Amino acid sequence: MQEVPLSIARLLRFGSTVHGTSTVSTWTGEGVRRATYAEVGSRAAQLAHALRELGVTSDQRVATFMFNNQEHLEAYLAVPSMGAVLHTLNIRLFPEQLVYIANHAQDHVVIVDGALIPLLAKVLPEMTTVRHVVVSGAGDRTPLAIPTVQVHEYDELIAAQPTTFDWPEVDEHDGAALCYTSGTTGNPKGVVYSHRSIWLHSTQVCMTEGFGLTDNETVLAVVPQFHAMSWGLAYAAFMSGASLVMPDRFLQAAPLAAMIAAERPTFAGAVPTIWSDLLRHLDADGGDVSSLREVVIGGSACPPSLMEAFWDRYGIRVVHAWGMTECSPLGSISRPPVTAVDEDAKRAYRITQGRLPAAVEGRLVGPDGEVVPSDGGSVGELEIRGPWVTASYYLDDDPDKFDEGWFRTGDVGVLTGDGFLTLTDRAKDVIKSGGEWISSVELENLLMAHPDVIEASVVGVPDDKWGERPLASVVLVEGAAVDFEGLRSYLGERVARWQLPERWAVIDEVPKTSVGKFDKKVLRRRYADGELDVTTLV
Length: 538
Ligand code: ADP
Hints:
The protein is of the alpha/beta class. 29% of the residues lie in helices and 26% in strands.
């Protein structure tokens, strides 16, 4: 066969010609600004010329500090295609982490949304390798005025540039994009995606056994481009011709509902917290979401109650997916196999984290380091390998995460013989009570299905007798009475007695990480510092 590199430039050429009439629509607050993929292709070429003039001549890192929008898509396409590396900075990280990441990656240019200038300005003076900042959209530029950096206007910079670019032939194994994990322990670690890994991953995203994208779909990409590459949606859109709706900075339930009603996407992807906010909004204020065929929920465990509520009340099928930055990020997706005929059987599959596709092999490793069987019952830490799973961290060593060619995910669960994964916890969140493991996720999902509970988080806290015991912190529906006994007996009908939490607290909100996941560290610390008003049931 011919040796043809699987490159982003090839994807860009294909999407902007064959699917030249597909569109990217960016929400402005009242409506959208729209561009065709042909226009995006021309502007990506212009951006590449402009970046060459700013000294991006080889594999320099070009960072983005942006929401999901047209210009971010242009950067996604232009930067890797010209042979440089796109580095998506997570705008929600702590300033120290942002500085660490930009310096570690040695970012040369940062492209920033005008609305994010105040955030970038705080950290820019400490980003020692950044020489150019390119600003897109409205916002006061003054805070960016520092001696080491030249500030440019995105539209002005690209305006006079040619609309075609002689994209260099890259090695498909070269780095195309760089993303850092949010660093739950220690410093964030970088994962470099190659042109080849992005190409192969995009194919999976487009497949029916993926997100099933075609040029007949319109994708609402809520999941940020600054986190885990927006689940591959941007590249998969250029591969499939699916149009994109980008929410920009409007990520709250009300504007999302308005966007859905106006732009009529058929497909969407976001983390559970965004969807549960949207569900509450729709229940309270209504809204037309009838265009949505399917929404993929992942990033943390999707409560089955959320899936059912969307199906029962809005006819929207929620598809559960699991992934992580280290695997591009799609790891598994939950579509019931054809053998599951009745609704109960289908439901049993839907609530799992899904099936690992052909390219992602998985195995479970028990506490003693032995591989345990994939029999639907044996529990272990999930290890994976495949062409879009990282083989190392960028200029960083973390030998604990790699096990003879397998990547250790830190997620604990079971695998079935037919390839379905059910996660019970993250290794560090499992509650280890007297030699038994209690799944915090299972307790949370059950509690969140209770009509009085909006959100629930369960963490292990030190216990003299058992080592660790569960503490349940719940956010109650407005006006609901505090009835821990009632919640406990509700759980008692669903899980073994020894798993029932003794310690309970009501909180205003479950603390979230930079990417909207439950931040259990914060709850453990609040408990340790005596900040929670804990009731102990005996
Ligand atoms: P981090 O949260 O560590 O910054 P990622 O965003 O890459 O990094 O998150 C990956 C982790 O998110 C997985 O290892 C897993 O613990 C969790 N996760 C992702 N999807 C799911 C899911 N569907 N169910 C449960 N956990 C999930």
